[in-house]
Task: structure prediction
Amino acid sequence: MQPGQDNLRKLETMKEEAFLCGGTKRIEAQHKKGKLTARERILLLLDDDSFEEFDLLMTGRAVGVGEYPGDGVITGHGTIAGREVFVFSQDFTIMGGALGEANAKKICKVMDHAVRVGAPIIGLNDSGGARIQEGVESLAAYGDIFYRNVQASGVVPQISCIMGPCAGGAVYSPAMTDFTFMVENTSYMFVTGPNVVKTVTHQDITAEDLGGAVVHSKKSGVTHFTFPNDIVCLREVRRLIKYLPSNSRQSAPILDLRDPIDREDPALDYLVPANPNQTYDMKILIHSILDGAEFMEIHANFAKNIIVGLGRLGGQTIGLIANQPAVLAGVLDVQSSEKAARFVRFCDAFNIPLVCLEDVPGFMPGPEQEHGGIIRHGAKLLYAFSEATVPRITVIIRKAYGGAYVVMNSKHIGCDINFAWPTAEIAVLGPKGAAQIIHRNEIKEAANPEEILAQKTEEYRELYANPFMAAKRGFIDDVIKPRETRHRLIRSLQFLENKQTSRPPRRHGNIPL
Result:
C-alpha cells in the first residue's frame, strides 16, 4: 500500500472521529436536554452545503486532558441568504465545551478572518467555562477573544447565541457583541453561579432565576431576543442577518417587498385619541408604515416604554426608535434611555438610517430615577443621537415636552428632517402643568380655582401645545397628514441617501457611561 493511500485512510478515520464529537452517548444526552449539537446548529443556521470548516483535527495539549479532535469547538464560514458569515459553535459533548488554548485559537482565527474580509461573526455558546486543567492559559485565551470583540466592534456585526451554560468570564464576550440571543429553559448567563451565591450571600436560587433567558430579557436587558428552542433561535438569527450590512463599509441589502412607496393608510388620521391623556399602541403606526408590515423588534421585553427595532422603508433597512404611550405613557427613564442609546449607536456604526416616532411626555420623575442616574443615562441617548451621522428623521406624533423633546432626535441636535402630525404638542411642559405655574397666583386667589385652571390650560394648549409655533420657527420641516407618513419618510430617505457629515478630528468621544 502506498503511503499516500495510508494517509487517506487515516484522514477518513480521523474525520469520522471528529464528526462523532464526544460520542453517541453524550450526543443523546444533549438531545434529551432539548438541545442540538454544535454541528447540527451550524448546519441549521447556514445555507445548505455552504459550511467550510477550519481546524477540524486541531487538538489541545494540556497534560492529563486527552486529545479530542476539534478541541470542543467547531469553526468555519458559510453563507446566510448567499452572504458570507463566520461562525464558531462550542461543543458541550467534548469536555463541556470548556475553553482552552487550542479551543480559543480556533475562535480567534475565525474572528480575525471575519474582520479581514468584512463579514459578520456569529458565536453559538454552550460551554462550562474555562478549562480548569489548563490553568492560566485558559484565562489568557478568554482575554484573546475579548480583545478581538473590541477590535471588531463597529467593523463587522457580532452576534452571540447562548444555547446552554455561559458563566464566569465567558459572559463578557457576548456582552460586548451587538446582539445576544438566548434559548428559554436551556440557557443561562451569570458571572457567579448559584453555588457561589449561596456560599457568599446564603441565598438559595436556581440557575434559571439567577441568569435564565426570562431574567435577562425582562430585568437586566442583557439579552436582546429569547426563543423557545434552538431551531427557532437560529431561524431568527438568519432573519436578523438579512437586515444588516456585512460590515461598516457597506449598506444593508435592498429587499423589494412590492409594497408601494406612495401607499397611504387613512386609518392613521384617527390613531391619536382626542383626549390627550388617553393611550394608544404605537405598534399600529409602526406596522402600518413599514414595508410589508414587517418589523423585527429588539429588546421587546425590556423597557417597553420605548420600542426599537429593524424594518424596511422602500426596500431599505432602517432603525426605528419609538416612544410607546401604551406603557408608562412613553416616558423616558433609566432603562429606556440606555436601551435606545445602544441601538442608535449600533445603527450609526453600520450605516442604517434612523427613524424616530415621538410621543414623549418627558423624563420619569422621582427619587428612584434620580438616584439611579437618569441624568447620566438620559445623556447617553442625547449623546448617541447627536453623534450619529447616518440619515436621521423624526416624526412627532403627539407629545414632545421639555428636555425629552430635544433628546428624541430633534432638529437642535442634528436631525436632518423633522415632521409633525397635526396632533403634535411641542412645549416646555404639558398644558396643565404650564398653566399651574404661569397662573398660580391667579388660580390660588380665584373663587373657582378648578374652572380657572381648566380655562388657562385650554388657552395654553391653543397657543403653544401644537406643531405650528415650531413650524414657524423652522424647527419642524413640515406638518403632514398622518396617512402620508410612509410616503414622506421614504422620499426623505431617498434624498438623504448620499448624506455626508464631517466631525472634528479626535481619537473618540467620551460618552457618559
Notes: The mean pLDDT is 92. The first helix runs from residue 3 to 19. Residues 406 and 412 are 7 Å apart (CA to CA).
